[in-house]
Amino acid sequence: MKEEHTYFQNALSDFVFDVSSGGALRHLANLGYTVEEIYGRLDYPTTRERVGAAVWKHYLEQNIVRFELPKEDEEKRNYRIIKEQTEYGKVTFRRVEVAPTEVVKQEYVYLPIGKLRYQRPGEYESFLAKLQERDREYVTGLPWELRPTYVVKDERTARIAETLAPYLLEKQQ
Length: 173
Known about the structure:
The chain has helices spanning 2-30, 35-41, 48-61, 113-119, 121-130, 133-141, 155-172, and strands at 65-66, 78-85, 91-98, 108-110, 150-152.
């Protein structure tokens, strides 16, 4: 019974968090704000870890962060939900694929920060010390996984990849 109660409380908490902060959080993440900056702007009391997890989930859903590079022939599919009503008044919904959109090729950089963080913590601290403050906030705010991670290339991720490169070369030798 207690386990069922905890599950419900967690689901309710997640729902309230998403309703109260989810849209703003995703919007700020899309604008390039770090988890720390987003956390400072929220009115709803929550933890940095929860904000980081929500931003990470958003990045995964938007393919900003991926665990494998996209395939060459991958295209973005669009769907619409069609509402239909039978002659007896029963309402049903159907998902219909519409014409695929033109594929915008994204360039990704390899950032195995999770591996460095969890497998070589001393080198991870050295890596963090070499980053600019805002880049450090970006790296420390996200819950990096041990899996190979690719992130859409922009100015920030390019700087981070450049700083990370010597640590990758050291490990290969």
